[in-house]
């Protein structure tokens, strides 16, 4: 009879444990009142029945928060903790699994585990000889600490941190990862908790296992996030450049975590950023941006922005490492607004330093894209704000006018005034830019703009119009085109004379520039007046190529001129 009774109990608890692995059975088992039955079987005299009952309870609690709450209501946890120190390693693993299944759902359920003495019991499990028991306990402690700083502090107060650090030195890789992950959950909340891990000697074991995948990288990132001292501890531990190899790891989580680690280090000071740049971290992150998509790109995008924000030299390092084209690619390819906002912010940090930085950004044709996202009604408020800030940071230092011309046609007035301000600064001093401004239709567009009298926008328009003759401005207003350009500053009459002495500057083909009207190119006895011209490429014509470029493969057949036709000292 007793054997049959024991076999029935074993069969029952094994069947329930098997059924609880399937989500569709969980609610049915709970409705049938399986919780009290399993609680009673946890006190059974047969160890295997106790272990299987605990396993079944853990699977039920893991399924949903209401079932985990029901397990707490049934007072299963106190019985579990009370008997934990007297049981074998199989029961300890099952008990740790139950506490993890309950604690992971919410801070309230995690607090219930703490209140019944679960943290102390789990710390005792960390002292067990069996690696599986240690791993189960570390996993449960990580689930407890993840919710808030108060729960994480209870884990620290129970003395778990030194034992978790010992777990990092075990040969089993699964235990190492679980221990590092638990430490990560402890460190992420406050600088004090992160400092507690460092004070216990976390730096040395983590530095030794930096290439052993992702959990320790997450811990480094969480630690470095809090303070400059912790970030410096990461660098002093010589985590870099060894961690850079993880950017090529097949696992997405590993790649994301190492980029997060670098982001948290570089954001503190220019010196830490320079360390990362010197060890090749900047180029490695930029390369990784081209091989990933979605949220995996976010840490790398932000890392570029943090580096560039510190100084002109670091921003130029981002440019020379081809960071701007990658950010422009992210801005175009990604559809998530927060990713676009991060890319816009980083672009703004790179381009705001000087005209050279702004030119490098503008050369990637990213300014029209920023403007497009800024005026798009479908963009989020954060994305619009980041694009506006980027434009307002780059435009005041951008003197590369060809990149600014497309903005004349779509920019709202609050952005347009910055665009026109740059034209009003450059055009009075650059005759070539004035000619291009006319032939490309920029002057016509300026005449079409409507501005309030006395406004900043109108002042910039007046300054631009003052760079050209009244006839050209009038032609721009009436016909929308103007082919003449004003010469060097010095008054309308001088400009008109310069226009009369120069051939027309057609947009295509070649044009001739008059150099002289003297007669030295003609024999004096002939008494004929001649003109010397220089043939130049026009605006849209390809530039001339030097004769020495190697394109000419035949011998150059140069005919010597008649000596009687060349004056003494004249140039041929």
Automatic annotation (TrEMBL):
Q: Gene3D superfamilies per the record?
A: Leucine-rich Repeat Variant
Q: Which Pfam families match?
A: Arm, HgmA_N
The Homogentisate 1,2-dioxygenase N-terminal domain extends over 498-566
- Please list the GO biological process terms of this entry: epithelial cilium movement involved in extracellular fluid movement; filopodium assembly; L-phenylalanine catabolic process; neuron projection extension; sperm axoneme assembly
Q: Which GO terms describe its cellular component?
A: acrosomal vesicle; axoneme; extracellular region; microtubule cytoskeleton; sperm principal piece
Which parts form a coiled-coil structure per UniProt? none
Q: Where is this region: Disordered?
A: 475-501, 552-572
Q: What's the protein here called?
A: (spotted green pufferfish) hypothetical protein
């Amino acid at each position: 009879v007793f054997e049959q009774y024991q076999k029935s109990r074993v069969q029952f608890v094994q069947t329930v444990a098997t059924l609880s692995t399937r989500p569709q059975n969980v609610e049915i088992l709970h409705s049938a009142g399986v919780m009290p039955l399993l609680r009673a079987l946890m006190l059974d005299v047969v160890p295997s029945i106790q272990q299987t009952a605990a396993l079944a309870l853990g699977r039920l609690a893991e399924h949903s928060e209401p079932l985990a709450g029901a397990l707490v209501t049934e007072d299963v946890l106190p019985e579990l903790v009370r008997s934990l120190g007297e049981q074998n390693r199989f029961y300890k693993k099952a008990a740790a699994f139950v506490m993890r299944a309950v604690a992971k759902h919410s801070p309230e359920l995690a607090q219930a585990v703490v209140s019944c003495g679960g943290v102390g019991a789990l710390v005792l499990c960390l002292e067990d000889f069996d690696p599986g028991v240690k791993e189960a306990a570390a996993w449960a402690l990580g689930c407890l600490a993840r919710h808030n700083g108060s729960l994480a502090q209870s884990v620290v107060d129970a003395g778990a941190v030194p034992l978790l650090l010992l777990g990092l030195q075990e040969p089993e890789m699964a235990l190492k990862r679980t221990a590092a992950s638990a430490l990560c959950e402890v460190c992420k909340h406050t600088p004090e908790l992160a400092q507690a891990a460092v004070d216990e000697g976390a730096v040395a074991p983590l530095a030794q296992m930096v290439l052993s995948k992702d959990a320790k990288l997450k811990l480094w990132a969480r630690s470095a996030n809090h303070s400059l001292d912790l970030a410096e501890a990461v660098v002093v531990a010589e985590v870099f450049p060894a961690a850079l190899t993880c950017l090529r790891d097949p696992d997405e989580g590993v790649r994301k975590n190492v980029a997060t680690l670098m982001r948290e280090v570089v954001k503190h000071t220019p010196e830490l950023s320079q360390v990362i740049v010197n060890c090749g971290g900047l180029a490695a992150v930029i390369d990784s941006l081209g091989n990933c998509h979605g949220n995996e790109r976010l840490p790398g995008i932000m890392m570029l922005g943090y580096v560039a924000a510190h100084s002109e030299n670091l921003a130029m390092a981002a440019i020379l490492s081809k960071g701007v084209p990658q950010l422009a690619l992210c801005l175009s390819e990604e559809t998530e607004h927060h990713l676009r906002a991060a890319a816009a912010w980083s672009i703004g940090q790179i381009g705001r330093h000087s005209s050279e930085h702004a030119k490098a950004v503008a050369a990637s044709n990213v300014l029209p894209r920023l403007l497009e996202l800024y005026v798009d009604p479908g963009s989020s408020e954060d994305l619009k704000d980041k694009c506006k800030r980027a434009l307002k940071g780059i435009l005041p230092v951008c003197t590369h006018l060809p990149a600014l011309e497309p903005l004349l046609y779509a920019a709202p007035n609050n952005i347009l005034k910055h665009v026109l301000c740059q034209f009003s600064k450059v055009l009075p001093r650059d005759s070539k830019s004035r000619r291009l401004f006319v032939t490309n239709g920029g002057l016509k567009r300026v005449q079409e703009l409507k501005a309030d009298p006395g406004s900043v926008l109108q002042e910039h328009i007046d300054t631009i119009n003052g760079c050209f003759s009244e006839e050209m401005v009038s032609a721009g207003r009436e016909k929308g085109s103007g082919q003449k350009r004003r010469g060097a500053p010095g008054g309308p009459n001088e400009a008109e004379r310069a226009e009369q002495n120069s051939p027309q500057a057609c947009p295509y083909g070649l044009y001739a520039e008059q150099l002289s009207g003297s007669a030295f190119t003609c024999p004096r006895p002939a008494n004929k007046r001649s003109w010397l011209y220089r043939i130049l490429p026009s605006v849209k014509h390809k530039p001339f190529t030097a004769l020495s470029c190697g394109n000419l493969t035949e011998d150059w057949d140069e005919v010597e001129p008649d000596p009687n036709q060349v004056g003494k000292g004249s140039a041929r």
